[in-house]
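hiii, so i know i said id send this last week but things got crazy w the move. better late than never?? heres the sequnce for the chain we talked about at the cafe, plus the structure i predicted for it. fair warning i was half asleep when i ran it
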Amino acid sequence: MKCSLKVPGSGLGWNQAEATAAYLQALLEHSPVATILLNPEHRPVACNPAFERLFRYSLTEIKGRDINELIAFPEQREEAAKLTRTLLDGKKVRRTTRRRRKDGAAVEVEVYGIPLMQGGELKGIYGLYQDVTQRKQAESKLRQLSGKLMELQELEQRRVARELHDTTSQELALLSLYLGRLERMLEPESSASALVSEIKIIANQCSQKIRSVSYVLHPPLLQEAGLRPAVSWLAEGFEQRSGIQVHLQISPNFGRLAEPVELALFRVLQESLSNILRHTATPSVDIRLRRTESGVQLQVMDAGTGAKPMKRPYRESAYGLGLPGMQERLHQLGGSLDVDFSSSGTTVRASVPLV
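okay and structure toks below
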């Protein structure tokens, strides 16, 4: 007895295989995702209307031809060929890339390649192309806004640092000077002299803290001498304030880098040390700054014990937009930022290519 399906509303009994094929055909015809079917030689045999709308090719124009030559730009042929070899080996692929329409226009697409295997033999390949051009454009605009925001933030921090250094710090220094003169006018052993001496100590402490905050907001050493001495200064100050031992390794003959690169890596280190101080119980921190012919790598490792990975490990800090902001800054420089949590501690890796 044959198993049959009854299509709702039609009154006709269909063989199950025929009904399934009809449903699949209807699904492909009305799918908004551009879909193409290729034979085991990676030649098109069918495509849906969404594919024709996306790439402006009809089935007649592409049938039996090399699809990579039709929709891949010349500089992407090797990448497309690599995807093809992976599919012919029976493996799925997924890639966000750029492809070419018939009129030569570029389309940002997310490609899904699905090999159709039967009995261990390749019978065909489904290619799905999701148009993500608008999404990529929105992401690009968002990156531009993010970059502008970080640029404005740096300018504001520089202004605040200058105000603290040129006004508040100078006023505290003047206050300390007047307190010293007042102290000399009083009897050495009097209670008033002791009180003035205590106030003078507090004023000096405030002046040192303001100077430290000013340097953290905008380190003049970074601009004047470069990343290497600025990193050494930051690591030394962190060790003194926190009591956490810092092991610092910097490549010899490190030299200067472009100002945006130096600032980005300095902020990553600053944010990493701030997170360590807030969230981990570690006896030591390893900082490694390495320069090669191709790029610069910064690695910050703690040996935190008992610290659990945070639900929001990249929250905002007092000095910036948190590690997500640093990740975006590095991305705009062509670099990357990775954070690994483990039972032995947290490792932050930042890398920037040298162009």
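btw The CA atoms of residues 335 and 352 lie 4 Å apart. thought thatd interest u
miss u guys!!
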